[in-house]
Write a structure and sequence with these properties.
single chain, eight-stranded parallel β-barrel, five-stranded antiparallel sheet, 22 strands, 18% strand, globular, binds alpha-D-glucopyranose
Length: 577
């Protein structure tokens, strides 16, 4: 594709290679871009990160202004949540136009400027692509509902006989009774697995598929390095009146990958596919499908295990998931919390029930439990604002096989605001400086803010900010930044051979990576109390090097004795004997 042909300012970033348009070229051995396996991703929402022009909305220029902050944190890839024109009935996951920037958030020129800035800093950029549904405000839906003869009508799924149609549970069960809503203009019901205002696209329609591919190409031409594919699992579920399924879902993933790689041979596809563990391999399509999947199994198990101070959930996670294999095609994007509810469905039933009550907060209409499956809480709420535990959790996240994703605000321990509805509770604006109006997020009148800044946190609970932590030794921010640096300095995590190292106390988790004769050992104490552990470590004592953590340790006789503080952690490496 000729990126400059449009003459509208789109342009291609300089690439090594590119233009491989044949299937063989795209999938040839070594064709897998490795950068994302070594990357540390930071996930942010433009509209709540930083408002540069004082209108109360975070904007793309605001992100540019704060890139130094992200450099300090050490992350090298941004994932921007949807910034497209949207009525924002689902925080932007209801897209009204796929090829523009919402004007409250900036312009395409601003987006290009961000791409340039990121390029200069050697940072990558991933954007969110919502291909399962549009907003009802999207022009396709407007035309579809007005004219049943229009080609757009078949972009969606309709029925005139809703009683006889396929019914299934809505993904937002608390808010929606089912998957059909009546449209007065069309005089028919349309199918939606999410909110009523998010009609599912008929992804089996080749014309829809072509639209989706060309949207991806549009953003690749503007210089993005890949996409987070929203709702990849619902995309391939049965849809519409007859519960129609895609004949060859892997064929759709493959074609998406082929089209994407033809524009940028390093572009990656990261899928939100929250499917059953034994179905996950399917999404990789033997290396021809998605490059990585969000690790929902890992998220529920790791975050829960740390919260209950027991490592059994980690053992279970590694039993349940496909084996980590640095040379294989399966790859995880790991996270502790994301912008949605903390989804617990992948925990065994008893643990889910336990987590529902153990971590539940609020009450009286402020209940944290949502959708019957999770908590609308941030990491700091789950761990009672304990910075030692949050720091240790990040150290573990950054040492696990897979690509770590840091959720904006968690690196400073921001709390949720349960006074806000639904998942807005975990989406309050970034708190830059608590001593400034709107905590430094915006100069606007507080009443004009896109989402209120959470000034108080929970009654009596400390609400974090950047100013009190950045550059302050021992602060949560600096400890997370140290862990990010440790990860970037340890390619063994993404390329080495992973193994679990058994330890005695059930609160201490240890694992290691072996690569080219060297070992990297990572030990994490989930207990709030000190623990001493002895684990095998076949490294010459003189050669053992501390990578991260301040625990005392002694290497001798083929093992290491580590004295970990409560929530302490230690990464050690060295040449194997
Ligand atoms: C994904 C997003 C979520 C959104 C939903 C519908 O699950 O993470 O925020 O509401 O898709 O697009």
């Amino acid at each position: 594709m000729d990126a400059d042909a449009s003459g509208d300012g789109t342009r291609e970033r300089e690439r090594s290679g590119g233009g491989a348009s044949t299937a063989a070229g795209v999938f040839a051995d070594g064709g897998r871009p490795e950068w994302y396996r070594d990357a540390v991703v930071y996930s942010l929402d433009v509209k709540t990160f930083r408002d540069s022009d004082g209108d109360g909305w975070g904007d793309v220029r605001g992100v540019i202004d704060r890139l130094d902050y992200l450099d300090d944190l050490g992350v090298d890839c941004l994932w921007l949540r949807p910034f497209y024109p949207s009525p924002l009935r689902d925080n932007g996951y209801d897209v009204a136009d796929y090829r523009d920037v919402d004007d409250r958030l900036g312009s395409l020129d601003d987006f290009d400027a961000l791409v340039d800035e990121l390029d200069e800093r050697g940072m990558r950029l991933i954007t969110d692509l919502v291909l399962n549904h549009t907003s009802i405000d999207h022009e396709w839906f407007q035309r579809a509902r007005e004219d049943p003869e229009s080609e757009y009508h078949d972009y969606y799924l309709w029925t005139s006989h809703v009683e006889e149609a396929y019914h299934t549970e809505n993904i937002f069960p608390e808010f929606e009774d089912g998957v059909w809503s009546y449209d007065e203009t069309a005089g028919k019901h349309y199918f939606h697995q999410f909110y009523w205002h998010q009609p599912d696209l008929n992804v089996a329609n080749p014309a829809v598929q072509e639209e989706l591919f060309s949207i991806a190409e549009f953003w690749l031409d503007r210089g993005v390095d890949g996409f987070r594919i929203d709702a990849a699992h619902p995309m391939i579920l049965p849809k519409g009146h007859d519960a129609h399924r895609l004949e060859d879902p892997q064929g759709l993933f493959r074609e998406l990958k082929r089209r994407v790689r033809a524009v940028n041979d390093e572009a990656v596809l990261l899928a939100e596919a929250d499917d059953e563990p034994d179905r996950l391999d399917f999404y990789f399509a033997d290396g021809e499908g998605f490059d990585a999947l969000f690790n929902f199994v890992g998220n529920s198990h790791v975050t829960y295990g740390i919260g209950v101070e027991d490592v059994w959930p980690l053992y279970r996670m590694f039993e349940v998931l496909p084996e980590p294999d640095p040379d294989g095609h399966a790859w995880w994007a790991n996270f502790l919390r994301n912008h949605d509810e903390w989804n617990l469905l992948k925990l065994p039933h008893e643990a889910l029930e336990h987590a529902r009550e153990e971590f539940r907060q609020g009450g009286d209409g402020r209940d944290s439990w949502i959708f019957g499956r999770g908590h609308r809480l941030r990491l700091a709420d789950l761990y009672d604002g304990d910075h030692d535990r949050i720091a240790m959790a990040h150290s573990l996240l950054l040492s696990l096989p897979g690509t770590p994703i840091v959720n904006s605000g968690d690196e400073i321990g921001m709390h949720a605001d349960l006074d806000l509805p639904e998942r807005q509770a975990v989406r309050t604006p970034m708190r830059w400086d608590g001593s400034e109006p709107n905590a430094g997020f915006s100069e606007a009148d507080p009443g004009d803010l896109v989402i209120p800044v959470d000034g108080t946190g929970w009654p009596g609970v400390y609400q974090a900010d950047v100013a009190s932590q950045r550059g302050v030794e021992g602060s949560l921010f600096e400890r997370v930044a140290d862990a990010v640096r440790a990860r970037r300095d340890s390619p063994a995590v993404s390329r080495g051979e992973f193994s679990i190292v058994h330890t005695d106390p059930t609160e201490v988790w240890a694992h290691r990576f072996d690569r080219e004769g060297r070992a990297l050992l990572c030990v994490h104490n989930f207990s709030g109390e000190p623990r001493e552990v002895v684990v095998g470590f076949d490294v010459d004592p003189a050669d053992a090097e501390r990578v991260l953590g301040d625990a005392d340790y002694r290497v001798a006789d083929g093992g290491v004795t580590a004295s970990l503080d409560g929530c302490g952690y230690l990464w050690l490496r060295g040449e194997r004997r």
